[in-house]
């Protein structure tokens, strides 16, 4: 029991590290977001936007918060590379799906790609944040418009599949979807998005602690 309690104490006091995977279509602004997060939180700034090129593979960045380390993994979004995303879901504590809110012509494709992400059983239970990026661009859709666009896309898809009974499924899907607006280029909303991710991964840790405490109380009674 002593070792169990010692282990529990060490578990409670160590700086927990969480992995956050950033996905989204090519050009959505994922790497710009990652580099902005580095600049915002680290003493060494991230790459300036004019030095960022399309990602082939992945980029990573770590930030240290008072009680937590967040490790961000930004994956390339070009169609040929999207097949690698699935491999990263297993180790992910949270997912951020970045949308280019100014690229209205590609929104349908964006929702198809998003739907594929949602269809993966590996992401069940992982906090998921939808980021409507490029809010600094006056042509960008707002957070509400992005949410409506997804709802509309989903409804059309149901209609195409002639699954009219699925409408309640659709409403629960979009109602539980967290959407935030950001400008990865200028940093607006980036701290709020990082706070959301931090709180969600912390909450999932709290659940583990409750489970462990429950395990301890059960083992005491054995
Ligand atoms: N106006 C505006 N442009 C942005 C913003 N974020 C990114 N961009 C621009 O969008 C383009 C693509 O940005 P990236 O960060 O390379 O996009 P990505 O999602 O990493 O793309 P892949 O690596 O190909 O998957 C660049 O020209 C960025 O400067 C933003 O918040 N506002
Ligand atoms: Mg990139």
Automatic annotation (TrEMBL):
Protein name: p-loop containing nucleoside triphosphate hydrolase protein
Position of the signal peptide: none
Keyword terms: GTP-binding, Hydrolase, Magnesium, Metal-binding, Nucleotide-binding
Highest taxon of source: Eukaryota
Entry keyword annotation includes Magnesium: yes
Chain positions recorded as GTP binding sites: 24-31, 77, 133-136
Annotated organism of origin: Sistotremastrum niveocremeum HHB9708
Cellular component GO terms, alphabetical: Golgi apparatus
């Amino acid at each position: 029991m002593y070792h169990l309690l010692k282990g529990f104490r060490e578990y409670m006091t160590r700086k927990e590290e969480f992995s956050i995977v950033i996905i989204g279509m090519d050009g959505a602004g994922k790497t710009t977001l990652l580099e902005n997060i580095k600049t915002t939180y680290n003493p060494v700034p991230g790459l300036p936007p004019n030095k960022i090129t399309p990602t082939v593979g992945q980029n990573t960045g770590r930030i240290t918060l008072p009680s937590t380390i967040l490790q961000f993994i930004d994956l390339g979004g070009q169609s040929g590379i999207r097949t690698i995303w699935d491999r990263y879901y297993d180790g992910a504590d949270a997912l951020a799906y970045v949308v280019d809110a100014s690229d209205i012509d590609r929104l349908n494709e964006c929702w198809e790609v998003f739907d594929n992400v949602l269809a993966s059983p590996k992401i069940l239970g992982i906090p998921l944040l939808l980021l409507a990026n490029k809010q600094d661009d006056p042509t960008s859709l707002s957070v509400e418009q992005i949410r409506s666009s997804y709802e509309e896309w989903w409804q059309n898809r149901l209609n195409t599949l002639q699954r009219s009974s699925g409408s309640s499924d659709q409403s629960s899907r979009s109602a539980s979807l967290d959407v935030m607006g950001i400008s990865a280029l200028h940093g607006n909303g980036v701290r709020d998005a990082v706070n959301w991710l931090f709180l969600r991964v912390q909450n999932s840790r709290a659940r583990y602690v409750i489970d462990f405490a429950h395990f301890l109380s059960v083992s005491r009674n054995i």
